[in-house]
Specification:
- The chain is mainly alpha-helical and about 100 residues long.
- Helices cover about 50% and strands about 0% of the residues.
- The protein has four helices and no strands.
- The chain is globular, with a radius of gyration of 12 Å.
Length: about 100
């Protein structure tokens, strides 16, 4: 999997932390799916702090935009993301595509 703007080591570290947090619920396939959706959404201009929730978009895109609107997001760690399983995958994917720092 090709990650942009971040070392794959950082992404792998975040995925390992996600697997610890999610335990039996962790799915690498689900992360890869989320990453793929958000990578495409970024190229289509669907991600950003100014983007409203849209029922026609995939839930991971709405979740990503919600996370991007979070104050002080750049100071958060993956362990601070406890909203949902999906939010954890979205957080790691946003780091992997370079929209937020790790």
């Amino acid at each position: 999997m090709e990650y942009t703007n971040k070392s794959s080591r950082t992404v792998l570290r975040l995925l390992k932390t996600a697997s610890v947090i999610l335990e039996d619920e962790y799915s690498k396939a689900r992360f890869e799916h989320t990453f793929h959706i958000l990578k495409i959404a970024k190229t289509r201009g669907l991600l950003g702090t100014h983007k409203p929730i849209d029922d026609c978009l995939d839930n991971s895109i709405n979740c990503a935009n919600d996370l991007l609107r979070t104050p002080n997001l750049e100071e958060m760690e993956i362990s601070d993301i406890n909203k949902s399983e999906e939010a954890i995958y979205v957080y790691v994917a946003l780091v992997a595509i370079g929209l937020i720092p790790a």
